[in-house]
Write a structure and sequence with these properties.
By secondary structure, this protein is an alpha+beta fold. 27% of the residues lie in helices and 25% in strands. The chain has one domain: 3-Layer(aba) Sandwich (Trna Endonuclease, Chain: A, domain 1). It is globular and about 45 Å long.
Protein backbone atom coordinates (compact mmCIF):
# COMPACT_ATOMS: atom_id res chain seq x y z
CA UNK A 1 0.00 0.00 0.00
CA UNK A 2 1.46 3.35 -1.05
CA UNK A 3 1.95 6.02 1.56
CA UNK A 4 -1.05 8.33 1.81
CA UNK A 5 -3.41 5.77 0.25
CA UNK A 6 -6.24 4.08 2.10
CA UNK A 7 -6.55 0.31 2.28
CA UNK A 8 -8.98 -0.84 -0.48
CA UNK A 9 -9.37 2.83 -1.43
CA UNK A 10 -10.99 2.34 -4.87
CA UNK A 11 -13.49 -0.18 -3.55
CA UNK A 12 -14.48 1.84 -0.49
CA UNK A 13 -14.74 5.07 -2.49
CA UNK A 14 -17.01 3.38 -5.01
CA UNK A 15 -19.26 1.99 -2.26
CA UNK A 16 -19.34 5.33 -0.42
CA UNK A 17 -20.20 7.04 -3.70
CA UNK A 18 -23.08 4.56 -4.15
CA UNK A 19 -24.18 5.31 -0.56
CA UNK A 20 -24.38 9.04 -1.26
CA UNK A 21 -26.20 8.40 -4.55
CA UNK A 22 -28.85 6.36 -2.72
CA UNK A 23 -29.09 8.90 0.10
CA UNK A 24 -29.39 11.86 -2.28
CA UNK A 25 -32.08 10.04 -4.26
CA UNK A 26 -34.19 8.67 -1.38
CA UNK A 27 -33.40 11.07 1.45
CA UNK A 28 -33.97 10.26 5.12
CA UNK A 29 -36.85 8.32 6.64
CA UNK A 30 -37.11 4.91 4.99
CA UNK A 31 -36.67 1.62 6.79
CA UNK A 32 -33.24 -0.02 6.63
CA UNK A 33 -34.25 -2.76 4.18
CA UNK A 34 -35.29 -0.13 1.59
CA UNK A 35 -31.84 1.45 1.72
CA UNK A 36 -30.14 -1.96 1.55
CA UNK A 37 -32.13 -2.92 -1.57
CA UNK A 38 -31.39 0.44 -3.24
CA UNK A 39 -27.71 0.22 -2.31
CA UNK A 40 -27.49 -3.31 -3.69
CA UNK A 41 -29.01 -2.15 -6.99
CA UNK A 42 -26.61 0.82 -7.17
CA UNK A 43 -23.59 -1.37 -6.43
CA UNK A 44 -24.54 -3.90 -9.09
CA UNK A 45 -24.91 -1.04 -11.60
CA UNK A 46 -21.34 -0.09 -10.66
CA UNK A 47 -20.27 -3.64 -11.54
CA UNK A 48 -19.72 -4.92 -8.00
CA UNK A 49 -20.58 -8.38 -6.73
CA UNK A 50 -22.96 -8.14 -3.78
CA UNK A 51 -23.92 -10.83 -1.29
CA UNK A 52 -26.71 -9.89 1.13
CA UNK A 53 -27.67 -11.32 4.52
CA UNK A 54 -24.51 -13.42 4.70
CA UNK A 55 -24.45 -15.79 7.66
CA UNK A 56 -21.13 -15.79 9.52
CA UNK A 57 -20.29 -18.25 12.29
CA UNK A 58 -18.97 -17.04 15.63
CA UNK A 59 -16.42 -19.33 17.25
CA UNK A 60 -15.23 -19.60 20.83
CA UNK A 61 -12.11 -21.71 21.43
CA UNK A 62 -12.81 -23.73 18.31
CA UNK A 63 -16.51 -24.23 19.06
CA UNK A 64 -19.18 -22.86 16.75
CA UNK A 65 -21.37 -20.80 19.11
CA UNK A 66 -23.75 -18.86 16.95
CA UNK A 67 -24.32 -17.19 13.66
CA UNK A 68 -24.56 -13.50 12.86
CA UNK A 69 -25.89 -11.98 9.64
CA UNK A 70 -24.01 -9.29 7.75
CA UNK A 71 -26.02 -6.82 5.66
CA UNK A 72 -23.62 -7.09 2.70
CA UNK A 73 -20.27 -8.26 1.49
CA UNK A 74 -19.07 -6.41 -1.62
CA UNK A 75 -16.61 -8.00 -4.05
CA UNK A 76 -15.74 -10.63 -1.40
CA UNK A 77 -13.52 -7.96 0.25
CA UNK A 78 -15.68 -5.41 2.07
CA UNK A 79 -18.30 -5.72 4.80
CA UNK A 80 -21.10 -3.16 4.58
CA UNK A 81 -23.45 -2.54 7.50
CA UNK A 82 -26.43 -0.22 6.98
CA UNK A 83 -28.24 1.72 9.70
CA UNK A 84 -31.35 3.86 9.26
CA UNK A 85 -31.99 5.57 12.57
CA UNK A 86 -32.43 9.09 13.86
CA UNK A 87 -29.20 8.75 15.86
CA UNK A 88 -26.48 6.18 15.28
CA UNK A 89 -26.14 3.98 18.35
CA UNK A 90 -22.66 4.11 19.87
CA UNK A 91 -22.34 0.31 19.59
CA UNK A 92 -22.74 0.31 15.79
CA UNK A 93 -18.99 0.60 15.12
CA UNK A 94 -18.36 -2.29 17.51
CA UNK A 95 -20.87 -4.41 15.57
CA UNK A 96 -18.95 -3.93 12.30
CA UNK A 97 -15.65 -4.50 14.08
CA UNK A 98 -16.95 -7.83 15.44
CA UNK A 99 -18.08 -8.82 11.94
CA UNK A 100 -14.52 -8.21 10.74
CA UNK A 101 -13.13 -10.30 13.60
CA UNK A 102 -15.48 -13.16 12.67
CA UNK A 103 -14.20 -13.28 9.08
CA UNK A 104 -10.84 -12.94 7.41
CA UNK A 105 -11.93 -9.62 5.87
CA UNK A 106 -10.09 -6.48 6.90
CA UNK A 107 -12.26 -3.55 5.88
CA UNK A 108 -15.81 -2.55 6.76
CA UNK A 109 -18.09 0.39 6.13
CA UNK A 110 -20.86 1.48 8.45
CA UNK A 111 -23.32 3.54 6.39
CA UNK A 112 -25.78 5.66 8.36
CA UNK A 113 -28.87 6.78 6.45
CA UNK A 114 -29.81 9.25 9.20
CA UNK A 115 -30.96 12.88 9.05
CA UNK A 116 -27.47 13.52 7.67
CA UNK A 117 -25.65 10.88 5.58
CA UNK A 118 -22.57 9.64 7.46
CA UNK A 119 -20.19 6.75 7.11
CA UNK A 120 -17.46 5.15 9.20
CA UNK A 121 -14.57 3.18 7.74
CA UNK A 122 -13.23 0.41 9.98
CA UNK A 123 -10.01 -1.50 9.48
CA UNK A 124 -9.03 -4.76 11.18
CA UNK A 125 -5.52 -5.93 10.26
CA UNK A 126 -6.07 -9.64 9.91
CA UNK A 127 -2.78 -11.55 10.09
CA UNK A 128 -4.35 -14.78 8.80
CA UNK A 129 -4.63 -13.17 5.35
CA UNK A 130 -0.95 -14.01 4.87
CA UNK A 131 -2.00 -17.67 4.50
CA UNK A 132 -3.33 -17.98 0.89
CA UNK A 133 -5.68 -20.83 1.83
CA UNK A 134 -7.59 -18.46 4.14
CA UNK A 135 -8.23 -16.03 1.30
CA UNK A 136 -10.43 -18.54 -0.46
CA UNK A 137 -13.04 -18.26 2.29
CA UNK A 138 -13.54 -14.74 3.64
CA UNK A 139 -15.70 -16.18 6.42
CA UNK A 140 -12.79 -17.94 8.11
CA UNK A 141 -12.65 -16.92 11.80
CA UNK A 142 -9.64 -15.02 13.08
CA UNK A 143 -8.06 -14.09 16.40
CA UNK A 144 -5.49 -11.32 15.85
CA UNK A 145 -4.54 -7.81 16.92
CA UNK A 146 -6.79 -4.83 16.28
CA UNK A 147 -6.56 -1.48 14.53
CA UNK A 148 -9.72 0.57 14.02
CA UNK A 149 -10.04 3.75 11.96
CA UNK A 150 -12.84 5.85 10.55
CA UNK A 151 -12.21 8.39 7.85
CA UNK A 152 -14.74 10.82 6.30
CA UNK A 153 -12.54 11.48 3.27
CA UNK A 154 -13.97 12.86 0.00
CA UNK A 155 -15.23 10.23 -2.43
CA UNK A 156 -15.69 9.80 -6.15
CA UNK A 157 -18.56 8.09 -7.93
CA UNK A 158 -16.28 6.07 -10.20
CA UNK A 159 -16.87 2.31 -10.23
CA UNK A 160 -14.11 -0.14 -9.50
CA UNK A 161 -12.43 -0.94 -12.80
CA UNK A 162 -12.26 -4.45 -14.20
CA UNK A 163 -13.67 -7.64 -12.82
CA UNK A 164 -16.33 -9.94 -14.20
CA UNK A 165 -19.98 -9.01 -14.68
CA UNK A 166 -21.77 -9.60 -11.37
CA UNK A 167 -24.04 -12.63 -11.19
CA UNK A 168 -25.71 -14.54 -8.37
CA UNK A 169 -23.25 -17.41 -8.80
CA UNK A 170 -20.25 -15.08 -8.39
CA UNK A 171 -21.49 -13.69 -5.07
CA UNK A 172 -20.09 -14.96 -1.81
CA UNK A 173 -22.21 -17.75 -0.36
CA UNK A 174 -21.99 -19.32 3.04
CA UNK A 175 -22.96 -22.96 3.25
Amino acid sequence: MARGRLFEERLTHSVIGAFFEVYNTLGFGFLEHVYVMALERELIERRHRVAREVAVPVFYKGHDLAEQRLDMIVDNRLIVEVKSTLELHKSANRQVFNYLKSTNLEIGLLLHFGPEAKFHRLLYRNQKRTNPSNLLNPLHPDETSVSVASDPQAVTNEPTAGGPEPSPSSCLKNT
